[in-house]
Amino acid sequence: MTLSLASLSDLVLGPLAGKSDADWYRAPAGKWNSAQIVEHLAISLEGSGKGFDSRRDKPPMVRRPKTAAERVASFLILTVGWFPPGREAPAISLPADKVDRNKAEQHFREGVERFNRIAPELLVSRPRDLFVKHPRLGDLTLPEWMRFHLIHCRHHAKQILERSAG
Q1: Rounded to an integer, what distance in angstroms lies between the CA atom of residue 129 and that of residue 118?
Q2: In the CATH scheme, what architecture does the domain 8-165 have?
Q3: pLDDT of residue 3
Q4: Considering the entire predicted model, what is its pTM?
């Protein structure tokens, strides 16, 4: 998997292009609709991107040791590329019950753009000594966060495809 987030907008928003509000807000009972999924992804991109932006001028950091749960989760998600079913999203990344599709789309595009802005510099200057904590995976470097976002978006893009196909 390449460390580029250039394809995220097509992956996540492509299936929703030209779709009606009904398509954006369709979801199985008790599940998020596509607008909420896009907002969830945007929140994650925004949080990690802001973390790297705010730390870019700090001295080199040392990764905190991962807990056993963080090691297992990191292996499953970052190495295998698999999200265990039945896990709830961390509270910090939960979308509101009602999400405006246009705002969610803009929020998502801004999150991707932030990474596209910071990645060229930080992947060269700070690839292994700058960390932002993930609520379930522990401290992650920028390349690890980028990998997470690619896998995370791919995971949710499948759900968006299912919901928008109806």
Answers
A1: 15
A2: Up-down Bundle (1.20)
A3: 53
A4: 0.96
